[in-house]
Write a structure and sequence with these properties.
homodimer; alpha/beta; Rossmann fold; two-stranded antiparallel sheet; 11 strands; globular
């Protein structure tokens, strides 16, 4: 998505070979109209797939998950985060490791919110090592629901999370696949 | 807002005299189209007030802050949460106490995202004791910006946070002011 790539180039800040900050429009400050455009584009890519639910994890994926759900006219569920195990009778849960925060965190979803009949589209702002997505996919499997695919705004391709998911047969769509941040320069795939 | 009150009555669950769960449409699963309606109503109430920025704190306020920002055509900033003090040169921050989680948490915002000229509308899903709002108001004061008011979806009036803010002269608009949850029954003001 060219407009997104342009925005990353003009507003993004490369802090290191692995860290790209897009605080000004994606995950600290959000540009609502641009969020709607991002949601529309993700929805367009999964338009024929019978998605019944959009799924993300708090916090920074919520904005674009909401606009994707709005475009697809389906509810949005966000997994909640908690430190420590919180596996309860009423929740599906998974433990994921955050490389950013360098800690493990438990993500959980009330069982009522994902049913076996659901066809679930995972949406998130970033895909790096894929830990959050692995956890969400686990929750979808616990519910016996179908994972339709994964819609991502910025994929850091060089961190391998996307490749691992695709190797398992998961369809991953990234609106801006970044193949390198070396030398402070953002380089996109294609 | 009658439609919201109806939804609270039909879908909400009163877990105790102080806890109302609205997981199915507001803060675990989100109904995107209804979120847009909520955002429109908050925007309508502050339409003439020259709001330049909507401000919330992660995570559950993000959806309705986004739709309010969309209706007002202004950016949305969300404060990030961290345990432990993270006061840095580049952030405004405040320490708040979460009664739900029974822990203190530091909320912070990059200084670039709120300027002295900004006229800020705080938006959140719930107002109970008002700790999160107190912290956000502190951050707005640190930035030298103007707090235009506070827009809330569900105010638990009996927990006093709204009264404390109003006593300080802050304009608080709640779409569903709940005056009691006693006996498992949701009672609204008016």
């Amino acid at each position: 998505m060219q407009k997104l790539k342009d925005k990353i180039i003009t507003e993004g800040r490369v802090l290191s070979d692995t860290v790209l900050k897009v605080d000004s429009f994606l995950n600290h400050q959000v540009d609502p109209e641009f969020s709607v455009e991002l949601g529309h584009e993700l929805a367009r890519r999964f338009a024929g797939d019978g998605v019944t639910k959009v799924f993300t994890v708090e916090a920074s994926g919520i904005a674009v998950a909401l606009t994707t759900g709005l475009a697809l006219k389906v509810p949005v569920v966000f997994a909640k985060k908690k430190r420590g195990a919180t596996q309860g009778k009423n929740s599906y849960s998974s433990n994921i490791y955050s490389f950013t925060r360098q800690e493990s965190v438990d993500i959980h979803v009330n069982k009522k919110l994902i049913a076996a009949e659901d066809r679930v589209l995972i949406v998130d702002d970033f895909l790096a090592h894929g830990e959050a997505l692995r956890g969400m996919a686990e929750i979808i499997a616990q519910a016996g629901a179908t994972l339709v695919g994964v819609g991502i705004i910025i994929e850091k391709v060089f961190q391998g999370g996307g490749a691992a998911l695709r190797a398992k047969g998961v369809r991953v769509e990234s609106l801006a696949p970044v193949i390198s941040l070396a030398g402070g320069k953002v380089e996109f795939a294609e």
